[in-house]
Write a structure and sequence with these properties.
The protein is of the alpha/beta class. Helices cover 41% and strands 15% of the residues. The protein has a 7-stranded mixed β-sheet, sandwiched between helices. Strands 8-7-6-9-10-18 form a 6-stranded mixed β-sheet, sandwiched between helices. It has a 3-stranded mixed β-sheet with strand order 1-5-4, covered by helices on one side. Strand 11, helix 10 and strand 12 form a beta-alpha-beta unit. It is globular. It binds NADPH dihydro-nicotinamide-adenine-dinucleotide phosphate. NADPH dihydro-nicotinamide-adenine-dinucleotide phosphate (NDP) binds next to helix 8, helix 9 and helix 12.
Length: 506
């Protein structure tokens, strides 16, 4: 053990020395340099401007207005995108209504399935292009877009294509009917994946869609619109309206929309719930979270460390179900935190298009400001702040992986959703205390538990008030598995058979 500890300290010293001055080329514990491994952006061709996708065609906004989208890793402007206003929302909803009544609604499920399979296959065929474009527009590392976002998006289309002709066997009665036109507003943290989560079940169930991507990440939704054209999806079945919050608000409030699906902040979710109340529109909300990742003293520590890192540093912590509160049993807390720090020293922060990058850019200046402000509050309230030595690139929006220890439950960093690479560590002594601290949040989206005892996993899963509980793993997603929260994390489920209920008149 003593040897282990000494070896660990020496490795940490080496990693610390080598990490200095590193944006893209850190040195490993063995002293080797990583060669740059950039993915080429040649595969992506970005037009100087993009229109709205309405009725199967791209066209400028009625007002002629547009906005810029930038690469958050460099602040380089990528392109101009049309800004949809009320007239465009009218046009998109009308196109979706006609497509619903004349084509998509009456079409047999087996025919709808063919289109969904086609979209899924094209996504796979063009996966590299999507992965590079997503990394450019969002700032997330290419290894995540390549291995997670894009394959999962395709998997959602494949999965729901399978349901399209089997709706009568989904447990919602002999002839479940679609709702009509779905207005869908999505965030910037998983732009293509969230589009797939929204579109695939809606289309499989026979609805048509008006999708509003986030202002800072419109490009993969527009490329998906191009894929809809390539798949010869009938015009108006999918419409994409790019724009800001007002565009989303106009979609949600439009009287021609029968169903609203939203993923984003709890604040906007509440505003949407107020707009929709009393209108008869069906609503699902997938909102924020402040998940507890609970590590017991019998947990396999090395696996737990990987789970903690994946839980909060995956996607720069821009994850609604991120394990942002680490609850660790007091008897192993020092050891776990020590191992965690050593692991964080090996993370590589820098160019999102480099295949060795673990931590990419923060998505926007606004989000960076929020993370910076909340982290400063953590220090001001008395928690101890630590980050591995790493030099941040001069341009773009960057934040070093950060761990706070000595956090108490009343601290803002233990209560508010930071939505960044910031972990708050708290301790507990008994399982009851772990449960009470895990549940001490207004949210209820996800949780993790690390222990060797199966009975304890089941006990914790029953006690923790969260829509998803991962056991000895974290941030695992599958299209067949329902996902969603309750309390201030929203309501309704996406994924699996349950995800169909949101788009059927049940
Ligand atoms: P928002 O909730 O504002 O954005 C989500 C989506 O809703 C975007 O498409 C946005 O458009 C749109 N929108 C904004 N205002 C309205 C409105 N009044 N009516 C309808 N749609 C609207 O999240 P932010 O991007 O502002 O992020 C703020 C915080 O929210 C983050 O720091 C994070 O804590 C949390 N968040 C949580 C997410 C989750 O998955 N749980 C996802 C994203 C953010 P536009 O982009 O143009 O503003």
């Amino acid at each position: 053990m003593a040897d282990d500890a000494e070896r660990g300290k020496a490795a940490a010293r080496r990693a610390t020395r080598s990490a200095r001055g590193a944006g893209t080329a850190l040195t490993t514990e063995r002293g080797w340099q990583y060669a740059p491994a950039p993915e080429s952006r040649e595969i992506v061709s970005i037009e100087p401007e993009y229109g709205l996708f309405v009725g199967g065609e791209f066209a400028p906004a009625a007002s002629g207005r547009a906005f810029e989208t930038v690469n958050p890793a460099t602040e380089e402007p990528l392109t101009q995108v049309a800004l949809a206003g009320a007239a465009d929302v009218d046009r998109a909803v009308a196109a979706a209504r006609i497509a619903y009544e004349r084509i998509w609604g009456p079409m047999p499920g087996s025919e709808r399935a063919k289109y969904l399979y086609r979209i899924a296959r094209i996504l796979q065929e063009r996966s590299r292009e999507f992965a590079v474009l997503e990394s450019l527009d969002n700032g997330k590392p290419i290894k995540e877009t390549r291995d997670v976002d894009i394959p999962l998006a395709a998997a959602h289309f494949f999965y729901y294509a399978g349901w399209a002709d089997k709706l009568e066997h989904a447990g919602f009665g002999p002839d479940p009917r679609p709702l009509g036109v779905a207005g869908q507003v999505i965030p910037w943290n998983f732009p293509l994946l969230m589009a797939a989560w929204k579109l695939a079940p809606a289309l499989a169930a026979g609805n048509t869609c008006v999708l509003k991507p986030a202002e800072t990440t419109p490009l993969t939704a527009l490329l998906l619109a191009e894929v809809c054209q390539q798949a010869e999806l009938p015009p108006g079945v999918v419409n994409v309206l790019t724009g800001a919050g007002e565009t989303g608000a106009a979609v949600v409030a439009h009287p021609g929309v029968d169903k609203v699906a939203f993923t984003g902040s709890t604040e906007v979710g509440i505003a949407i719930a107020k707009t929709v109340a009393g209108t008869g529109k069906k609503l699902t909300l997938e909102l924020g979270g402040k998940a507890a990742n609970v590590v017991f003293d019998d947990a396999p520590v090395e696996q737990a460390i990987e789970g903690i890192v994946n839980g909060i540093f995956f996607n720069q912590g821009h994850v609604c179900c991120a394990g942002s509160r680490l609850l660790v049993q007091e008897s192993v807390a020092d050891h776990v935190v020590d191992r965690l720090r050593r692991r964080l020293m090996t993370l590589r922060l820098g160019d999102p298009l480099d295949k060795n990058t673990d931590i990419g850019a923060i998505n926007s200046r606004q989000q960076l400001d929020k993370i910076t402000e909340l982290s400063a509050a953590g220090e001001a309230e008395g928690a101890h702040r630590w980050s591995p030595p790493c030099e941040l690139p001069k341009k773009g929006f960057w934040f070093a992986p950060t761990v706070f220890t000595g956090v108490s439950q009343s601290h803002r960093i233990a209560r508010e959703e930071i939505f960044g690479p910031v972990l708050s560590v708290l301790t507990f002594r008994t399982p009851e205390e772990a449960v009470s601290k895990a549940n001490n949040t207004p949210y209820g989206l996800s949780a993790g538990v690390w222990t060797e005892k199966g009975s304890r996993i089941l006990w914790m899963a029953q006690k923790m008030r969260a829509g998803v509980v991962w056991a000895n793993t974290y941030n695992m997603f599958d299209p067949a598995s329902p996902f969603g929260g309750y309390r201030e994390s929203g309501f309704g489920r996406e994924g699996g058979r349950h995800g169909l209920a949101a788009y059927l008149d049940v």
